[in-house]
Amino acid sequence: MSDANVINVEKFHFFVVGKTDKLIQNMSGVRCHMSLPVSVGVLLVGLPYSISLAAQWLYGWPNKPGYKKYIEALKPRRIYCLTRAVLETLKYLQYGRLYFQWKSWYKNEENRKHYEKDNIVLIGHSAGAHLCTLAALFLIDGREELFIEPSKQAAITLAIRGVIGLSGVYNIVDHYEHEQKRGVEYVSTMHKAMNGVENFPYYSPTHLLKKLSQDKLDRIPPFALLHGTDDIIVPFDSSAKFCDLLTSLSVKVSLYLLPRVDHTEIVTDLMVPDRRFYHPIYSCIKQEYRKLLGAW
């Protein structure tokens, strides 16, 4: 009888254990089903809102009165656009590697016995291309804000053999309108760098070119413009329109539209030869560099 009791107890024990296991499995399933929507919510809602709100807090809220700026800041389209823009800028971290590589090249250049200071080719990417272009045009126009003596300005102008622009911004007004369409104009540093929207034409190479006299236009160095067709930060129309303007003013210019290249790849792929677009981009730059030095 005691043996029967033991067997019954053991059966009851296994029955309870079995029920407990099923209960644990059910609870695990509930947690799994609950964690999936939470994870998706964090990924699709929490993360984008956190990134975009942090960006707007750092760079400035929308230009709206009172509480309306916060309503504007929370619009889903603006959240999506800002998050995408912030993630795109993370690619610029690759610039660090490029900086150290160029620094090494510069040291090697310094070690050479002969440095041709009268053969200068300006090259820049994005805002750098804009600054190179603006510097060349300001020198030709003899702008006092450069804080360079007129005689030195003339000497520097003669030394500049050409300008190579990679994915450059040449019309600040057009670029600001593009940023408005992307919903990132409030976090962009464009209007801050120009000291306000009212100064956009003044710092736009396209507007400056139209005001130069023929004598000054004749002194503009040749241009080589490279732009990727997959660029969403600065559309390739920026270089295409600038090329058309230079051509209409009889300024020597070459335009290269590179298929499938985006805004960062056009410069980061120059870091090492095994990058996907290294050879086509480098070949264009090398070819234009030789042409620019031989054009004078």
Explain how this protein is built.
This protein is an alpha/beta fold and 296 residues long. It has 2 domains: 2-87; 116-294, Rossmann fold. The protein contains 13 helices and 4 strands. Helix 11 links the parallel strand 3 and strand 4 (253-258). Helix 1 packs across helix 3 (76-89). The chain is globular, with a radius of gyration of 30 Å. Residues 1-17 have low confidence and may be disordered.
Q: Name the CATH architecture of the largest domain.
A: 3-Layer(aba) Sandwich
Mean pLDDT: 78
Q: Could you estimate the helical fraction of the residues in percent?
A: 55-70%
Give the strand order of the largest sheet, numbering strands 1, 2, ... along the chain: 1-2-3-4
Tell me the name of the CATH homologous superfamily of the largest domain.
Answer: Alpha/Beta hydrolase fold, catalytic domain
Task: Give the CATH topology of the largest domain.
Answer: Rossmann fold
- What overall form do the CA principal axes indicate? globular
CATH class category name of the largest domain: Alpha Beta
Number of strands: 4
What fraction of the residues are assigned to beta strands by DSSP? Answer: 5-15%
What does the radius of gyration come to? 30 Å
Question: How many discrete domains?
Answer: 2
**What is the number of helices?**
13
The low-pLDDT segments are 1-17
What's the main sheet like?
4 strands, parallel
